[in-house]
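Tokens help. One example:
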Amino acid sequence: MKSESDVSCKQKTHPLASKRLVGVPVRIEEGRAEVVLRAIDEMAVDEYGLVHGGFTFGVADYAAMLAVNEPNVVIWKAECTFTKPVRVGDEMRAVAEVEEREGKRRVVSVTVRTAKGVVFEGRFTCYVPDNHVLLRRKGDER
């Protein structure tokens, strides 16, 4: 397996993403990425250790961004299904793959698994603008 530093040198987007909250990239290839996130106590929503779905979505989103791996990529639309609960202590592994490319649009499929199997399946429509989304002028078109 590649070291974290080998992976990060290939990373062109989301350089400040929190490894603790959205995961650690373990593989970045052309059109494909894998990210691992261990569910920690702060992610729990109850005394049973149920992890808030936003963290599962977050690792999936991050993997999708890395599969596209363009500096200015943003999520435009998401269609997803949460198939099983995640508990504190579970290791989530998100695998993302670009399925479609059309102009600046990318469609990325993402599956998140734990030791219990698939916990999330999603399809993200991403957009690659010319400039950072926060630097765009009002009225600019996609």
Remarks:
- The longest helix spans residues 53-68.
- Residues 19 and 49 are 20 Å apart (CA to CA).
- The chain has one domain: 4-135.
